[in-house]
Amino acid sequence: xxxxxxVEDQKFMVVLQTIATAYQDISVMKMKETRSFIDHARLFVxxxxxxxxxxKYSHPLLSRLEGKTSAKKPLAKVLITANTKFHxxxxxxxxETFLKDNKEEGDVFLxxxxxxxxxxxYGQKDEVKLFDxxxxxxxxxxxxxxxxxxLQYKKIYVYYxxxxxxxTQNPEVSELTNINKLLExxxxxxxxxxxxxxxxxxxxxxxxxxxxxxxLNNNVIVSLMRQAVLETxxxxxxxxxxxMDALLVKIDENMKSLHKQERKIKHDITNKKxxxxxxxxxxxQQ
Length: 286
Fold this sequence. Notes:
Elements: H1 3-58, E1 73-80, H2 90-100, E2 107-111, H3 113-121, E3 129-131, H4 140-150, E4 153-163, E5 169-175, H5 179-191, H6 209-285
Helix pairs in contact: 1-6
């Protein structure tokens, strides 16, 4: 390798380092913002849970209500990925979780163009409905077309990523239409560091408890669909942060290697010039 090539490689590494650092800064900023949105979504679901628990206490028969019995279509599967790359391995792990869960056949709904590419790569069916949802600034209006379809199904499985820590992000599967199961999961998530409430108060409900539960069920589906997208965004940002950190370490190693090669080439050039001078002196002394 010549000195010119090394200089070009060093310039490329500097540019790559700048891009990776920018991605890191953006990820940190967006993680803080997304966590705030998730906290608000959990608060809303918590309030819905309190109402539903009161309903179950007042109407014991409602405790056996699972899913939207009025819906006609059997099963929807929602796969949440992304529109852009550079998210580490989390998107592929979500997709692999989706592939492994093949016990039930259902209509596939896809969020993110990367998921479409993965379906083609793995030779899976291409008959999916793709929805364009922003990777960074997701709005509720982005989910409305998807929600319209999902409310027609008795069961909805969502394949997404959940943030555990900066180091750990895990693929998850949730059944959105099982309101009992979902609210139990939310209750478990709320247990840490809190005291559980005793039996909720009894109320008289108007309209009927069944109609209120149906309304709650729809709202829980909408809220938790949004929450799953936000959880995936948070996990993606954390995975990207981890990937960019690994890239910066690799860049640093490459820069050290290039500097070492540059010094060696300069040293070889200096030695060559010294040998030429000595050879010239010997020649003129003869």
